[in-house]
Specification:
heterodimer; A: alpha/beta; D-Maltodextrin-Binding Protein, domain 2; B: 504 residues; 21 helices; globular
């Protein structure tokens, strides 16, 4: 009798999930979440939100252990993942740094030694200036920078990372020339802008939202193909959806976004990849996830399987072009 | 006045049986992780974080901050008893705290440390209460040149402190800078001094170095001296605790000066480590009993502990108001804030006053709870020293290695700690000071980043360090501290022949 019920249950589950192979593989021991940033960083928040959602909705039977391995801009975590080849109980959280880091530094892993599982969101980049500057739109600011090359300071987190890549793209597209100042993180770059020590930065919405709300800084445009979601006003007059795209505002860059990615080590069974992709897909459908996306003003976009591979290939090629041009490729 | 009304409201939020119970649990857990070197506050708070996901934000932050206070107190305990600082900021406490313990005054040292720490923390919280709006704005005036000036000040106040030759101090500091440079460089994005070791990518953790240099190095020396702890057989009397409490007012000048240094470094934000070193340096320079420092001078315990906690508690303010964590623990807590759905930043005070003022009120209460609880545990900890070395020695080795492993969970760190133990032993044998190395390791890469960022901003001109009143003042004080002793001795030498000739 019992046997029959469980068999029935299994069939029901298999039917419900449309015959996805996930039923074949399940974690047999606690799963380790490897975070490729230090505690408190953007990737850390991403992983911990996923952890809290999985725990709340009981999407996995096995417990989750989160470890931060943020050394070397995250390289520490990816190398740890590479060494764990074949271990299906280690899930690594990162951004596009997973496949971009090995270009700019000589590291002991190659991107193809990791197995991509999913991309869960795209973080946006905006061009921000101090609120009390005379520049009311991106065009007038860029004109001012062009008039006095090498005097305006653009702040960002770290060197040869997303912020500096974007700065380089802006310089190429407009002919303006900035002094790029690398700080320890986006938060520091945000405070430096609010204090008027730098002239602009390209922070993610989440990193600057507090200062914007307080009226210290203001966004000029967003490097996204469409305007951001969210009709609620952040300040008295503006909300996220009122920010023009940079293309509208006269900076000819269509799109610059950073995917939040999840990886497994190399050499893991396809069933395991499918299992985690399925769990993460369910995570991305919960109200808590929507709330996280809205709070951090990211773009909700779930990619797995072939879509993910295509996305990575094109993002990789785009960034590589900038790296080559700037001479950042480490040999 | 508005702030006081908010604070009273905050006490209303924080003073419930549930919250006070959470404080006690937090402090106890904190002492536990603080006593184990390597486990420390950041790791303890990360471990506890998942449990708070389901709690309401006020209760969650009260639990986490109480654990932080507990860990800070626990860190001082091991500094004094075993010469193993649990946190970077309690390194300066070892200079006089450990000699005191070896002379059989462990109870006094612990009592003084806890009381002055509690005093510093309270001054820090009062400052936050009174000046919260102003302080948040002031911190915005700090950019890379100002940061560099603050770190320079910390180094300068420490120069010429040790009894060792200045050249040995420079060698030790230079080694510290080299260790600090290992890993990925923020400014260039390149790898430095990793020699292809994956384990060195994230740099050398300060804690590993300290566990080796102080803990293991000290044990090797003790073993060589004949397997015993000298003079720590003194009996532990509860009465000693009360007697020491009565002596505290004697150090009022040190307490006030160190609180001022701590608050200043907490909000600027140079951080608790710079604060404790600077305060120790100043106390030694200005004390009437200079020669006692380093040999068990109570003032040498009071000064760093007061500044450490004053800075630690006043540093919470920049975290809340600017969203910039001043320490690793603050960074973990900030991550927590975001998961609980709060956005640290200037608007937090406006949007969630109940949370902010509940937290500030809990800082008053949490510190009082923490001081009472640690004072109660003093006899317990002090009597650990009465255990024969043959038993406690191996236990310390085990604790050291467990600590080294917990920092990042890497077996490689165990070898590193052992190597640092050898270095520490050699340093002691050859009479090289260890403190400058530690200071350079903790503040070295920050100072370097700030200097190079300043150079990028000014396009290579040093004049950026005199470009505004704030940074110029900081640099002048720093230079005066660095070259003051040299100048006064040169002047003294120049003037001496004159006076003698005048007499003749």
């Amino acid at each position: 009798m019992l046997k029959k019920t469980s068999w029935l249950l299994a069939t029901t589950i298999a039917v419900t999930f449309g015959g996805v192979a996930q039923a074949d593989w399940k974690p047999a021991k606690p799963v380790e979440f490897i975070v490729t940033s230090s505690p408190g960083g953007g990737t850390d928040n991403f992983a911990r939100v996923v952890q809290s959602i999985i725990a709340k909705h009981k999407l996995m039977e096995q417990p989750i252990v989160v470890t931060n391995k943020g050394g070397g801009s995250g390289a520490e975590g990816f190398i740890y993942t590479k060494v764990a080849a074949g271990d299906s109980h280690k899930l690594t959280f990162g951004t596009n740094n997973a496949y971009l880091l090995p270009y700019v530094a000589k590291l002991a892993y190659k991107p193809d030694e990791l197995t991509p599982v999913a991309a869960m969101a795209l973080d946006e980049f905006l061009l921000w200036v101090k609120a009390d500057t005379p520049y009311k739109d991106a065009k007038s600011y860029i004109e001012a920078v062009k008039a006095k090359p090498d005097t305006f300071k653009m702040g960002g987190s770290q060197s040869k990372d997303t912020d500096q890549t974007l700065t380089s793209l802006i310089q190429d597209a407009t002919g303006a020339k900035f002094i790029y100042v690398p700080f320890q993180g986006g938060g520091a770059a945000g405070v430096q802008l609010a204090g008027g020590h730098i002239d602009s930065n390209t922070n993610n919405p989440n990193e600057n939202a507090g200062q914007w709300k307080a009226g210290a800084i203001t966004p000029l445009c967003v490097f996204s193909p469409t305007r951001l979601q969210g009709g609620v006003k952040v300040t008295a007059t503006m909300g996220w959806s009122d920010i023009p795209t940079c293309k509208e505002a006269g900076i000819p860059i269509d799109q610059f976004q950073m995917p939040r990615t999840v990886w497994l080590p190399g050499g893991v069974p396809a069933d395991a990849v499918a299992f985690y992709a399925n769990v993460l897909k369910k995570v991305s459908e919960t109200p808590e996830w929507k709330e996280y996306i809205e709070r951090t003003s990211q773009t909700d976009r779930f990619l797995a399987g072939q879509d993910l591979k295509t996305f990575i290939a094109s993002d990789d090629a785009k960034n590589r072009k900038v790296f080559e041009q700037e001479g950042w490729i480490a040999r | 006045m508005e702030n006081f009304a908010s604070l009273l409201h905050g006490f209303g939020v924080a003073l419930t049986t549930y919250h006070v119970m959470l404080m006690m649990i937090g402090v106890l857990l904190g002492i536990l992780v603080g006593v184990l070197p390597g486990l420390g506050a950041p790791n303890g708070v990360s471990l506890l974080l998942p449990l708070t996901f389901t709690m309401d934000p006020v209760a969650a932050i009260i639990l986490l901050t109480s654990m932080y206070w507990g860990a800070l107190f626990g860190g001082s305990t091991t500094s004094i008893l075993f010469n193993i600082p649990g946190e970077p900021s309690s390194v300066a406490t070892t200079f006089d705290g450990y000699p005191m313990a070896r002379q059989g005054q462990a109870t006094q040292a612990l009592t003084l440390a806890f009381l002055s720490a509690g005093f510093g923390a309270l001054v820090g919280v009062i400052l936050i209460t009174v000046l919260s709006t102003w302080v948040a704005k002031f911190a915005l005036r700090f950019s890379s040149p100002e940061y560099f000036a603050v770190y320079f000040l910390a180094f300068a106040s420490f120069i010429g402190l040790g009894a060792a030759s200045p050249f040995k101090t420079i060698v030790s500091m230079g080694l510290g800078f080299a260790f600090a440079a290992v890993g990925m460089d923020t400014v260039s994005g390149g790898l430095r001094l990793t020699y292809g070791f994956n384990e060195l990518l994230s740099g050398i953790s300060f804690l590993i170095a300290v566990i080796g240099l102080f803990g293991i190095g000290e044990l090797m020396l003790t073993m060589e001296e004949g397997l015993r702890f000298d003079g720590i057989r003194a009996r532990v009397k509860i009465r000693d605790v009360f007697k020491t409490v009565a002596t505290l007012p004697r150090y009022w000048v040190t307490l006030l000066r160190s609180s001022a240094v701590g608050c200043w470094m907490g909000i600027t934000p140079g951080g608790p480590t710079a604060a404790s070193f600077m305060s120790y340096g100043l106390a030694k320079r200005l004390s009437r009993r200079k020669e006692g420092f380093g040999r068990g001078e109570p003032e040498g315990v009071v000064a760093p502990e007061t500044a450490d906690h004053a800075a630690g508690s006043s540093a919470i303010l920049p975290m809340l108001a600017l969203g910039v964590p001043g320490s690793a623990t603050a960074a973990v807590m900030m991550g927590g804030l975001m998961i609980w759905g709060l956005n640290p930043g200037p608007m937090l005070f406006v949007e969630r006053p109940d949370f902010v003022w509940g937290l500030i009120a809990s800082m008053y209460l949490g510190n009082i709870v923490a001081v009472l609880m640690v004072l109660a545990t003093i006899p317990l900890f002090a009597s650990i020293l009465r255990i024969p070395f043959a038993i406690i020695g191996p236990v310390i080795v085990v604790v050291c290695f467990i600590g080294a492993y917990t920092v990042a969970g890497r077996p490689f760190d165990l070898w590193l700690a052992l190597a640092f133990g050898g270095v520490g032993y050699l340093f002691k044998k050859l009479d090289y000071p260890i403190a400058p190395l530690v200071l350079a390791m903790v503040l070295g890469d920050k100072a370097e980043d700030a200097f190079r960022q300043s150079m990028i901003m000014s396009r290579g001109s040093l004049s950026i360090f005199w470009s505004n009143g704030l940074v110029a003042t900081l640099m002048l004080i720093g230079l005066a501290l660095a070259f003051g002793p040299l100048l006064s001795s040169t002047l003294g030498r120049l003037l001496k022949p004159k006076t003698s000739s005048a007499v003749a």
